Amino acid sequence: MANPKAPGSVMNTMLVFTIMMVVLPIFSYFFSKSVIFEGVFGMIHTSSYFYAAVVAISVVHVILGMFIYVAWSDDSRPVPQFKAD
Q1: Integer CA distances (angstroms), 28 to 4, 31, 38, in order
Q2: Where do transmembrane segments lie in this chain (predicted)?
């Protein structure tokens, strides 16, 4: 996602995932509750709260998985410099 040699790339990555962790679960909770479960499926309020919470928790787990993947695949190991004559 980010160039490991660019200054501040780790901070940019962390900032993006922090914003996603705050915004996406809240949006997915209210969107799935009102539009999907109450609108499309016609559920009552008490049932839609539960299923919308499950959707929001699933979104949190997906974001955490994406963060772990990006952090794991980020090649920040120092590359040895060889002298070229």
Answers
A1: 31, 5, 14
A2: 12-31, 51-72
The pair of three-digit structure tokens given for residue 40, joined into one six-digit string: 């499309």
- Tokens describing residue 28: 């997915």
Task: Read off the pLDDT of residues 21-45 as tens digits, 9 standing for 90 and up.
Answer: 999 999 999 999 999 999 999 999 8
Contact of 29 with 53, CB cutoff 8 Å: yes
In eight-state DSSP terms, residue 83 is P
Residue whose entry in the numeric block shows the structure tokens 């509750």 = 33
Rounded Cα gap, residues 65 and 59, in angstroms: 10
- Please state the pTM of the whole predicted model: 0.77
63 and 20 Cβ atoms separated by less than 8 Å: yes
52-78 residue pLDDT tens: 999 999 999 999 999 999 988 876 666
